[in-house]
Design brief:
The complex is a heterodimer of chains A (about 575) and B (about 100). By secondary structure, chain A is of the alpha+beta class. Helix content of chain A is about 35%, strand content about 25%. Chain A has 13 helices and 21 strands. Chain B is about 35% helix and about 35% strand. Chain B has three helices and five strands, in the order ββαβαβαβ. Chain B has a five-stranded mixed beta sheet, with helices on one face. Classes of the chains: A alpha+beta (about 575), B alpha/beta (about 100). The interface between A and B is medium-sized, with 28 and 28 residues.
């Protein structure tokens, strides 16, 4: 029979028993202990021979009987039998004679040899009205369960439900915390293997960065000057979580070891692949670019296991060469031999661009991906900038593009730029105090680029006037870039303001220099002078990035006729 | 870097670079001079529009009290700055020999 929950005043003895139970239920914080306490409490308060608790697994729609640690729990669909009926109705079911009730499943008795006479089945509903599970108590010691027992059991069930609910929430928190700590540790290991400083390579400008996603991805990079040359690595292990973070760490350690033991590129790559194939799990692999640059001959040789696209900006033609991977992802399978590595020569101004898919695949809220074209156009636009500036520009652009969408994967960029011997590039903070370092930079650039010293005053004037304008009127905080380039018969000066409002300096009004002194004002003189002295004076604004580019050319021929 | 100080015979001697970073200190010094003042530019290596502004302000003040600023020993490579700005019309300029 099914009985509606009835409210009967509990006796003082009943209350005392329940309070005792409540105290006992306050202590445990692991589920198995709590289940034991709940069953013991039910047996004691209701004077029953046995008891059991079925927990409700809502996502799977099942009721689960935790029997004992180490044994697979019993699962039943949540509609089945007496427990199911109780879970659905959320009411006590009191069955005085089990073998007379069709819902009773006698198979358990058959297995255990125990005979169930009577049974109370109670819904466990917590304080938030959530079904936590179902409790069953079997065989009242001196008869059958009566209406008083039902009332007592109802009060007890409420206490048990709250206690169980608390333990479940707590264990979810503990599990989450354990996972978080494990991820953090894996991340720390992964980060610790990245080079702390960029190697100093004569004739080259190298820069790399690693931006971890919230959940670990499996990116890594390496840049190191070894006996074999400059080692350049970008790797990405499949998947998210602890495993990929640790596999790339392992890869990097193996690789450094191989090169330290004197391996050449082919041997290192092959050995690394075959060792990873042995040790990595079946479904894991690592895509990796592994290259060695000889800074003396400028030849870069590389293998790439599934890592691509590999881009090389060619300054002479102002376009990108695109290389495909030379081999399978590392660790996917053992291979007996490799085909020859790709070999390319870095010329002045060329840039090797290695970018992980976390950048290419970063999406904005409309589901569009950042893509390769944005990366190449940013590099092309900043082709004369330092590798660090290019890298910062790409990261800023990805960040702006995402419009707050979460970073789904690790982002890694490795840039290797060969110096352009005809260009000097400097970056300066937006403050008048930067004028001294600017003068030092210009002096060094004149010497290095073998520029004609007679142009020095004009160049200094151009840089100072344009720079102080940016300090006074620019709205940005990013450093200002100054470039000097040797050109036929003279020098080209460029200033780049990467986050300013557009202002075409070449259109500034002329100053009337014939006014009497009382009417003369100092304003506007700087640009007035530049317009008079320069062979060419150009302004370009890129609205997409807010970049102002001012270019001024001076020639020795242009000095003629003046002082 | 710039130094500006009183030299022998009443001239003001200016040495170094008169740029935007040094304009304020040069102005502070020149605000104190009186009468007809010769600025000895023999050691002046560089001047920008900020420096021209300092000279203009000083010249206006001195002309108002029947004084003036004369520029002496200006290096040839600085002359076109004065020419293109029309400042050669505002100052008496003695070129370096």
């Amino acid at each position: 029979m099914t009985t509606a929950v009835q409210h009967r005043p509990l006796s003082a003895a009943d209350l005392e028993a329940i309070l005792d139970v409540t105290k006992a239920l306050a202590a445990p914080f692991d589920l198995m202990t709590m289940l034991g306490e709940v069953v013991a409490a039910a047996k004691q308060v209701l004077r029953a021979e046995r008891g059991s608790v079925w927990l409700y697994d809502e996502p799977r729609g099942e009721l689960v009987l935790e029997v004992a640690t180490g044994i697979r729990p019993v699962r039943v669909p949540w509609q089945a039998g007496l427990v199911g009926a109780c879970a659905r109705s959320r009411r006590i079911i009191n069955v005085p004679d089990c073998y007379a009730d069709a819902r009773f499943d006698a198979s358990v008795d058959k297995t255990s040899g125990y005979r169930t006479r009577c049974m109370l089945t109670l819904p466990l509903v917590d304080h938030k009205d959530v079904l936590v599970g179902v409790m069953q108590v079997l065989n009242k010691i001196d008869g059958v369960f009566d209406v008083d027992d039902e009332a007592l059991a109802t009060a007890l069930a409420a206490q048990c439900a709250v206690a169980l609910s608390r333990v479940r929430m707590m264990s979810a928190v503990i599990e989450g915390e354990k996972m978080r700590q494990a991820l953090e540790m894996a991340r720390e290991v992964q980060m610790s293997t990245l080079p702390g400083t960029m190697p100093s390579v004569p004739g080259y400008d190298v820069c790399a960065t690693f931006r971890p996603a919230d959940l670990t991805g499996g990116d890594t990079f390496d840049l190191a000057l070894l006996d074999q040359g400059l080692l350049v690595v970008l790797g990405d292990a499949t998947g998210h979580g602890i495993a990929p973070a640790l596999s790339v760490t392992q890869m990097q350690a193996m690789l450094r070891m191989a090169f330290r033991l004197g391996a050449d590129l082919e041997t290192a790559f092959l050995q690394l692949n075959n060792r990873l194939a042995e040790t990595l799990a079946e479904d894991r692999f690592i895509t990796a670019f592994i290259g060695l640059l000889d800074p003396a001959t400028h030849v870069l040789r590389f293998h790439s296991g599934g890592q691509g696209p590999i881009l090389c900006y060619r300054a002479a033609t102002r376009d990108f060469e695109r290389y495909k991977p030379t081999s399978f992802p590392l660790g996917a399978m053992e291979v007996p031999s490799l085909r020859a590595p790709v070999s390319l020569t870095m010329h002045a101004g060329d840039v090797l661009v290695l970018v992980s898919d976390g950048i290419y695949e970063q999406e904005n809220p409309r589901g569009e991906a950042f893509g390769e074209a944005r990366v190449t156009s940013l590099i092309e636009a900043d082709r004369e900038a330092s590798a660090a500036v290019m890298l910062a520009r790409v990261l800023d652009a990805v960040h702006a593009f995402a419009e707050g969408a979460p970073q789904a994967d690790d982002m890694t960029i490795v840039l290797l730029k060969r110096h352009d011997a005809s260009v000097a590039v400097g970056e300066f903070d937006r403050t008048i105090d930067a004028l001294d370092p600017i003068v030092a930079f210009t002096a060094e650039a004149f010497a290095r680029l073998s520029l004609d010293d007679r142009l020095r005053t004009r160049v200094d004037l151009a840089v100072e006037e344009l720079f102080t304008n940016m300090v006074k009127y620019g709205r940005g905080s990013a450093p200002v870039q100054v470039r000097l380039r040797a050109v036929d018969g003279g020098v080209e000066v460029s200033l780049i303001d990467s986050d300013g409002a557009p202002f075409d300096v070449t259109k500034a009004p002329d100053v009337d220099i014939d006014k009497p002194i009382e009417e003369r004002e100092p304003g506007g003189l700087g640009l007035h002078l530049l317009k008079r002295m320069a062979d060419r004076f150009d302004y370009d604004y890129a609205p997409a990035t807010g970049r102002s580019l001012i270019t001024v050319r001076f020639s020795v021929a242009g000095l003629a006729g003046c002082g | 870097m710039l130094s500006i100080e009183e030299g022998h015979g009443g001239a003001v001697v200016i040495v170094g670079r008169l740029d935007a970073a040094e304009a304020a200190s040069a102005q502070a010094f020149l605000d104190q001079v009186k009468g007809t003042v010769t600025l000895d530019c023999t050691g002046l290596d560089y001047i920008s529009s900020a420096g021209l502004g300092v000279l203009l302000k000083t010249q206006k003040r001195l002309l108002g009290v029947n004084g003036k600023l004369r520029l002496a020993g200006l290096k040839p490579h600085l002359l076109d700055v004065f020419t293109y700005s029309g400042f050669d019309q505002l100052f008496e300029i003695d070129r370096a020999s």
